[in-house]
Amino acid sequence: MKNRGIRRQLTGTVVSDKMDKTAVVQVERLVKHPLYKKYIRRRNKFAAHDKDNSCNIGDKVLITESRPISKLKRWRVTEIIEKAV
Questions:
Q1: Which region is the signal sequence (predicted)?
Q2: Is the pTM for the entire model greater than 0.85?
């Protein structure tokens, strides 16, 4: 049986808030190139459930893995770490 107590959490920036109760969050990570040993930026976009529509573009947010909410949404906005200026 899997350990259900631990869920993945990621920090990213909101790049779109046009959908109702959904925010698109871009998560950036650094990966070392196997041959050249240079660090490369890798970006992923996740559709996250934002139940209060409180996220705006540019906000830094913490998202948590959850059960499937819709076709694309498998993450929830847990907290807004930093509001955009």
A1: none
A2: yes
